Inverse folding.
């Protein structure tokens, strides 16, 4: 890679960070910068997605966490959705439905160290759209505690 490329990238990165800072978004952690803070969120991602997919490794982890067999863990904590196996959900006072492992008072995961890979990877980018929404509305409404409650319905772009 040419030296000029690195400088240009660094310059773009600095410019980008300046833009994010102007939006009230500053990196939260040291290593890989990320612009969201789950501790200040109400667990949108654990609520609005109907499907949190689990694979056999996730089920084994859940089984070990609860001291049951994988078969019991699978039956107790998951269900099928088409060809997928997903986490079960239950009613949620904020969003109507949420993952069965979400603590409704603290809005935290009750099985954090045993959560599935899908949850570990989310949102896979330095930004989280839902956290951006929180930050945006809190700034717009000049209220550090306001909670924008949105529900998302997914369509395939052809209205189906
Ligand atoms: S929606 Fe974003 S900020 Fe909120 S808990 Fe999930 S990843 Fe964290
Ligand atoms: S397992 Fe935990 S992190 Fe994953 S969706 Fe459920 S509450 Fe959220």
């Amino acid at each position: 890679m040419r030296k000029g490329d690195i400088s240009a990238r660094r310059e773009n990165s600095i410019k980008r960070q300046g833009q994010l800072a102007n939006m009230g978004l500053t990196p939260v952690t040291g290593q890989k910068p990320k612009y969201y803070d789950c501790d200040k969120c109400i667990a949108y991602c654990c609520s609005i997605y109907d499907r949190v997919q689990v694979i056999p490794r996730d089920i084994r982890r859940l089984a070990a966490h609860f001291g049951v067999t994988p078969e019991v863990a699978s039956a107790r904590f998951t269900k099928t959705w088409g060809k997928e196996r997903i986490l079960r959900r239950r009613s949620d006072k904020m969003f109507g439905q949420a993952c069965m492992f979400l603590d409704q008072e603290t809005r935290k995961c009750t099985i954090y160290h045993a959560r599935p890979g899908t949850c570990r990877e989310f949102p896979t980018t330095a930004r989280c759209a839902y956290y951006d929404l929180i930050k945006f509305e809190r700034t717009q409404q000049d209220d550090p505690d306001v909670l924008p409650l949105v529900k998302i319905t997914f369509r395939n772009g052809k209205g189906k």
